[in-house]
Amino acid sequence: MLNPPRASPAAARGIAYDANENSVVLRLQRGGFSMLLCADAGVVFERRVLSEPAHHASLASQVVKIGHHGSATASSSPFLEAVDASWAIVSVGSNGYGHPSPAAVRRILDAGPQLRQTDTCGAIAVSVSPSAARAAGRWAAGYAVRDMQSVWARAPMFRKLST
Predict the structure, then answer these.
(1) Contact status, residue 38 vs residue 65, Cβ threshold 8 Å
(2) Which residues pair with 30 in a beta bridge?
(3) H-helix or E-strand containing 36?
(4) Would the pTM of this model clear 0.70, i.e. be above it?
(5) Is 1 exposed, middle or buried (0-12, 13-18, 19+ CB in 10 A)?
(6) Is 108 exposed, middle or buried (0-12, 13-18, 19+ CB in 10 A)?
(7) In the chain, what are the domains?
(8) Measured between alpha carbons, how far is 32 from 61 in angstroms, rounded to an integer?
(9) Cβ-contact 74, 68 below 8 angstroms
(10) Cβ atoms < 10 Å from Cβ of 149
(11) Residues 17-63: pLDDT tens digits?
């Protein structure tokens, strides 16, 4: 668990509490695979974790779920470089905030990972096993990332009823 810190730096300095910056950030690991789940954390979390050598070294992950729905204040270039992911996932839907921000999308793409967004791909599955990765058709070091649109399209409950 990379966030929240044990003692919130904001609280210690008398700064207003920010629920997004105190959201739970996890790095999951199985064998040689790792995935960073950034929840709603943004630039405050990114700066803090980059400034702490023990955490900075543990950021590298094959897959990153981008923080704060790809807002303009998340996914800084230094953070994305430290994570060095092959895949970036943005969990986003119709919203009035303009998420994901075009600037954040540009930073993500400039950092090099393949980008998937739930507003365009639907649910996204990350499979972590050689057999699951082969079944998904994207063998890549024991894991696979795939959108679930084709799966949902075949599901009976999502088929259009004839009228």
Answers:
(1) yes
(2) 33
(3) strand 33-37
(4) yes
(5) exposed
(6) buried
(7) 9-121 (3.60.15.10)
(8) 10
(9) yes
(10) 13
(11) 677 777 778 898 887 788 999 988 888 889 988 998 877 778 999 99
